[in-house]
Write a structure and sequence with these properties.
about 40 residues, mainly alpha
Length: about 40
């Protein structure tokens, strides 16, 4: 894959989608949620 052909906006969209998706390994919490709560 040539990432130079993918816009920054599209990369950000996919990044957000993946980070907001709940994960079984995180007890059905999203990586973004867990990350922000660990920073507290």
């Amino acid at each position: 894959t040539q990432f130079t052909r993918i816009s920054r906006r599209e990369i950000k969209r996919v990044q957000t989608m993946l980070n907001d998706r709940p994960r079984k390994i995180l007890n059905w919490q999203s990586p973004a949620y867990v990350f922000h709560h660990l920073l507290r």
